[in-house]
Design goal:
By secondary structure, the protein is an alpha/beta fold. The chain folds into three domains: 2-99, no CATH class; 107-147; 165-405, no CATH class. 52% of the residues lie in helices and 17% in strands. It is built from 16 helices and seven strands. The protein has a five-stranded mixed beta sheet with strand order 5-4-3-6-7, with helices on both faces. A two-stranded antiparallel ribbon has the order 1-2.
Length: 406
């Protein structure tokens, strides 16, 4: 190290106007430094400091009266190791080296890499291992969490952003995740609302946590959409949660309601023994026909009631499926055949729930609801910026239908 400092001192003391120094001599000095322990880093540090000092000199020539005012230290990385740079200052404080913008961009890229790895399911330990392999620096779990502070704030701001005034369709559903709270672990509900905008593109409007799922809680979340700018909704698709229709009617009384057909078919099949399910499944395909204009919602509900009457003597638990609220399972038949398949289930939001769980499953019970919301929000953000940004043009037929009706 003393040898390295000696070589650097010689380089710093050279005045080429007084001494004639051959190129070979300069090369030898630089080679001695570069070949020594940590020499490459020291040369890089020396070079960057010189660049910034020269830049300040140019700044002072263009801004008379803005005198030098010493230096401040700034940590940076080079060749996998840390450097301490001497950043020049001026009295007016108007000087900012261009080089620092480059270093800042590099820091931002590294933060994005850490965020991306964590979002894709890697634990903080695994993220640290990858980062060390690429950049030569190891981070603890606490340091990784600190580096993701900006990412957490970004996701939090995104989840609270202002929304559009009208959505063609809202899909609502909850998924349950093992969550650590008050020194115990239990499955808690995480509510997601996925919207279809007027141009046909998708947008995740909300992700929130409630320990349980209930219609009252859903009404609370639908009301919160209004506070963020939503004024009207054309259609809301949900599962068959008890009293969910009342919550929807209270929050958006002009919205139509579609109960998920996949859920009711699954529940009906569960009533029958396995030996009869293939046969019953074929009947249900006819009862819940899609992409058709040949039957109305009321007629389809009557067919469901006939199906229940046909089998309820042998399977009495089927009787509940003829409840009048179940006409909402056929709301999709009031829409053009081209979009019936897209609105008769909550499949889109169920796929999003699977994406959430794919990221969460490597971690077991998360440390807090906030950490789960951060990961789920980051997954939703990525989906929106990529696959959700492409409009599904067939949804525009909903608006055309609405105009004809008015």
């Amino acid at each position: 190290m003393c040898k390295v400092k000696s070589c650097i001192f010689k380089l710093q003391q050279i005045n080429v106007q007084t001494y004639e120094l051959y190129t070979e001599q300069i090369s030898d000095l630089l080679l001695n430094v570069a070949n020594s322990e940590n020499g490459s880093n020291l040369l890089m540090q020396l070079t960057l400091n010189a660049f910034m000092k020269s830049e300040r000199h140019l700044h002072q020539q263009e801004n008379e009266g803005d005198y030098g005012n010493g230096y401040r230290e700034r940590k940076a990385r080079g060749f996998g190791k840390e450097m301490i740079l001497k950043v020049p200052r001026t009295r007016n404080g108007t000087f900012y080296p261009v080089l620092l913008n480059v270093l800042r961009n590099e820091d931002e890229e590294r933060r994005k890499l850490i965020f991306s790895l964590y979002r894709r399911g890697l634990t903080t330990e695994q993220v640290s291992d990858v980062y060390e392999e690429i950049y030569g620096k190891e981070y603890s779990k606490q340091q990784i969490s600190y580096l993701m502070k900006d990412s957490r704030e970004e996701v939090d701001i995104w989840l609270k952003r202002k929304l559009e005034s009208h959505y063609l369709v809202l899909y609502i559903d909850a998924t349950f995740v093992h969550t650590r709270r008050d020194k115990s672990v239990s499955k808690e509900g995480y509510y997601t609302i996925l919207g279809i905008k007027e141009d046909g593109s998708r947008e995740v409007l909300s992700i929130v946590n409630h320990p349980t799922e209930g219609a009252t809680l859903w009404q609370m979340e639908l009301e919160s959409l209004k506070e963020r700018g939503v004024q009207s909704v054309g259609l809301i698709a949900s599962d068959g949660l008890t009293s969910i229709e009342n919550a929807i009617a209270e929050s958006f009384p002009n919205a139509s309601h579609q109960l998920c057909v996949v859920h009711i078919k699954r529940n009906i099949l569960a009533v029958f023994p396995r030996t009869k399910r293939l046969e019953i499944g074929k009947e249900l395909l006819e009862t819940f026909a899609i992409e058709t204009k040949s039957i109305t919602a009321v007629e389809a509900f009557k067919n469901l009631c006939s199906f229940v009457e046909k089998y309820q003597k042998s399977y009495s638990s089927l009787k509940s499926f003829s409840n009048e609220r179940n006409i909402a399972y056929f709301t999709y038949l009031n829409y053009p055949p081209s979009i019936q398949r897209r609105i008769y289930t909550t499949n889109w939001i169920e796929r999003l729930n699977r994406d959430y769980k794919r990221v969460l499953k490597m971690r077991g019970a998360m440390s807090s609801p906030e950490s789960i919301l951060f990961l789920m929000g980051s997954v939703a953000m990525e989906k929106e910026y990529k696959s959700y940004s492409y409009p599904v043009t067939t949804f525009r037929e909903i608006e055309e239908l609405k105009k004809k009706q008015t």
